[in-house]
Amino acid sequence: METAAIYAFGAAICWTLAGLFGHAPARALGSLHFNRLRMIAAAGILAVLLVITGRDLSFDLVFIWPLILSSVIGIVLGDFFLFLTMRRLGPRRTNILFTSNAPMTAILGWLILGEVLAGHDVVAVIIAFIGICLAIIYGKHRDLIHVWEDVTPPLSLGVLFGLLAALGQAISAIIIRPVMSDGMDPVMASLIRVMIAALFFWATYPFDNSQRKKPILPEPKILVNIFFNGLFGLGVGMALFLKALETGHIAIVAILTATTPVLILPFVWARTGMMPAWGAWIGAVLVVACASLLIF
Fold first, then answer.
1. In which band, very low, low, confident or very high, does the pLDDT at 225 lie, cut at 50, 70 and 90?
2. Is-above-0.85 flag for pTM?
3. 73 exposed, middle or buried (CB, 10 Å; 0-12, 13-18, 19+)?
4. What's the rounded Cα separation, in Å, for the pair 279 and 146?
């Protein structure tokens, strides 16, 4: 059994949940302030996790620059664009666009790290990508009306933001991969990256005109959503993703963490009361087949 693939699939599940909890705060607060608050929540969660698990708090300073670069590109820029996309297009379409980080990561991994997939892995990745595309194209009924399906025009701007978020994730994964391969603790790496991102996001606070005359903390319901978004997104989800990068092939890790458009379908069904379309079910079956091939 491929443990790296299990970690990657676990990260995908966490990121799916994070997306669901992130939609309301992103719409209510805007991407910048939402990210400020979620960084604080995630840093607190990771710090507690470090303490209760008794992990070593030290790390080699040679890792600091890759950690800074991966944080700025993957979290500061990537998450900023990700939640701009979510605010404009909703969680389902955002997950759809974000899956493009998988082929981006695979290409960059081949060009920069020289990682080449084995034949059966290539087949599994292609099966998964077809499944994700089916879930994207045929996953929604035409008559579905819900706040998660609202689009703030222009659509092209939301698509651009989503692709920039995916590119940030792909580049960040390439930068952080050698650090994880050299044995950096994934929880400690996650905490450092989040703290770096928090510094950048909070440095913009005095210049954020949209936040003036508004309270720093929103209503309790939004705070709860921010906490769970931080828990699943930058907390457990990111730690699992970095753990997968320790030993896993970067293209396989990327494709498994890109299965969120399929994983989100049951939640959309539960929330909207409308069963996903037939294409979504076929896509889900193909994604499960891919995960089985890669994990077992």
1. very high
2. no
3. buried
4. 20
